[in-house]
Amino acid sequence: MRKTGALRTLAARFKYLRQAADLTQAALAEAAGVERPYVSQLESGGRTNPRAREFCRLVAVFGVDALWLLEGRGERPAEADVREAVARAQQTQAAVPEGPAAA
Q1: Which of 6, 57, 88, 98 has the fewest CB atoms within 10 Å distance of its CB?
Q2: Which region, left, alpha or beta, applies to residue 22 given φ > 0 means left and ψ of -120 to 50 means alpha?
Q3: What average pLDDT does this structure show over 50-77?
């Protein structure tokens, strides 16, 4: 079990979510439609002010409260809930066609 004190930074909360979802940085980047270096920067603390568009995509994939992820306010999401949200996001992404249908 992880200690609550270990989740005091955006980077720590972000890493907690990615690990709870059992995803690599590359898999998370693909699921959220962001670049892998962006994921790495968030997780390492190299980016403390995330870009809105990418941040919203990540929040949607994880199915978490944006304020919790950004500032640590509120209740930490359960790992099982995070895994379930990510699985739903991946299923939705797989069901969406990648381009216009051939005529």
Answers
A1: 98
A2: left
A3: 93
